[in-house]
Amino acid sequence: MKLTVKHSLVLRIGLVLGAEFLFALGAIGASLVMTHALEGNAAAVNVAGSLRMATYRLAAHALNGSDDLDGLIADFEQRLADPRLVAVLPTGADSPLRAAHVWISRRWNEDIKPAFVRDAMRGGPLEIRARLTEAGVFVGELDAFVAGLEKHAESAVWRLQMLQLLALFLTVAVGLFALLRVRRELVGPLGALVTAADELGGGDLTARVGLRGPDELGRLGESFDAMAGELERMYATLEDQVRDKTRSLALSNQSLDLLYRSLRSLSAAHDVTRAFPELLDDVGTVLGLDNGAVCLIGDAPLEATQVAIAMQGDAKGSGCTGEHCTACLADRAPHCVLLASDDGVRRISIPIVEKEERFGILLMDAPDGGVIDVWQTRLLQAIAGHIAMAIGNARGAQHAYHLALLEERSTIARELHDSLAQSLSYLKIQVSRLDALWRDAGAPAGSQPVLSELRDGLNSAYRQLRELLTTFRLKMDGRHFSRAMADTVDEFRQRIGHEVRMEGRLGPCTLGPNQQIHALQILREALSNVARHAQARNTIVELRCMDGVVELTVEDDGMGVHIDAGPDQRVHHGLAIMRERARSLGGDLTLESPGGGSGTRVRLRFRLDAAGRENGSGVVGEQPT
């Protein structure tokens, strides 16, 4: 509000003080004027009193005639016209005192003076007595005039006293009024301002002056209250900022501690997936998010297997079903996805990616509204990055070991090809020559069966050696074992000449290098038996991985096999070699005829090694996400 002149406190106080000054100045001026007027009253009374003495001297002259009459008359007239006497007379024509002076002057000029002059020329005793009587009357009139002058002087003194009393009263009244106004409009507000300033300086930000008004102090009070209110708001905001900063620092410390613990647990774990549940619990505690899961991608780019889950309270399942894999995996950026859980929960999907290679996703329940803070998203991305780095490191180490093993096997294959394979080929040629020589020269009795067995043994050894060399020369990595199996199935489909169907998948399970070689060799041996002996029309190859156990099944609808066959039959079908490989895997191999004597089922079961579990084999169940 703009300050106006009429509301100015300075102006009001100035007006009060100015009025006080004017009252005092007026009283002093009036007193000076009246005092100056009273200065001639005493002289006028003396002059008027001396007229009586002059009258008595005229009377004395009438009795003895000793004095100069003209001098006495001139002295009387001089006294009567004395300026000191005339100056004190009121100027008004109706003034009794001026009228008395006029009357005395007339009496003197018309009666007293002519009588004394006339009697001085020819006055007898009677005339003198008459002049003395008349002089006595005139002196009485002069006494009345002197009394009037004295009364006039006393009246002037009384008026001066009244004026001074009135001036004193007005001065005191105006002074009291000024003091009250100053106390109410200046001292009180200033005291309130000082008190509020002291309280504010002492830390009481709720201190307020409460002054309102259009004057300077009112505006100052409003400004002070506004300043105090702003300080209170700023202090409250500062406290909020301090609390927010403290909370942010606490969250940062918790986040750093979580990142450190996640790196330590993931790097120290022989089985990465076993660290996932505890890691998910830690993530949920720090971020305030319930229920999480880690899903790793298998062979198909939009299919994954849930390998770890952390549920809180009475949560009902993860809500992951096969149709949601695309929703979770399609977007490479963090996003929210609605899963088919009982309560329709929404989850945040964070990709597990390292160097453009995507291993899977990290799922966490989203809060109400499906939106999480930026810092939560960044922390989840960092955790997902740690998981990806741990998986990548494990797979990198396994891949390096696998390459070294393949290089070693390739070297062995070359050595076998250059030595044993050549020797077997030479023996086969020699057996053929021997057979031809015996046929021409006549073979000894009983030698032909021995020669046939020798030829069959060499052919079998040569075939097994070629299979072994083929297996040693396979170029695989642990992530594409299913593809290597599919290639093997395609190869034998062409050799067998009937339908060979492959079912199932490993998901994120990864076989170790030795496991891959042995499993693939067992598959090739089983399919080779189907090709040579089964006389089947359909063959099914099924590969499953559940709870860290790999199951490989080869089933045909052919002529079947006798479970209780002797050792020669088992060797004929390569069962001894397959069971030896199964034992080297720490598993078992079973052979059965599911069709009551028709058809054959070969089932291999073994557990993944630590390297395979570390790369995703520790599944909770066969739950596609």
Explain what you see.
The protein has helices spanning 9-38, 41-64, 69-80, 83-88, 96-122, 125-201, 216-268, 272-287, 325-329, 374-441, 447-472, 481-496, 513-534, 567-572, 575-584, 610-617, and strands spanning 292-297, 304-310, 335-338, 346-354, 357-365, 499-504, 538-546, 549-556, 588-592, 600-607. By secondary structure, it is α+β, with helices and mostly antiparallel strands. It has 3 domains: 8-187, Up-down Bundle (Four Helix Bundle (Hemerythrin (Met), subunit A)), CATH 1.20.120.960; 254-388, GAF domain (Beta-Lactamase), CATH 3.30.450.40; 476-619, 2-Layer Sandwich (Heat Shock Protein 90), CATH 3.30.565. The longest helix is centred in the first third of the chain and has 77 residues, at 125-201. The radius of gyration is 70 Å and the shape is rod-shaped.
Secondary-structure blueprint of this entry?
Layout: H1 9-38, H2 41-64, H3 69-80, H4 83-88, H5 96-122, H6 125-201, H7 216-268, H8 272-287, E1 292-297, E2 304-310, H9 325-329, E3 335-338, E4 346-354, E5 357-365, H10 374-441, H11 447-472, H12 481-496, E6 499-504, H13 513-534, E7 538-546, E8 549-556, H14 567-572, H15 575-584, E9 588-592, E10 600-607, H16 610-617
Parallel strand pairs: 6-7
Antiparallel strand pairs: 1-2, 1-5, 3-4, 4-5, 7-8, 8-10, 9-10
Helix pairs in contact: 1-6, 2-3, 2-6, 5-6, 6-7, 7-8, 7-10, 10-11, 10-16, 11-13, 12-13, 13-15
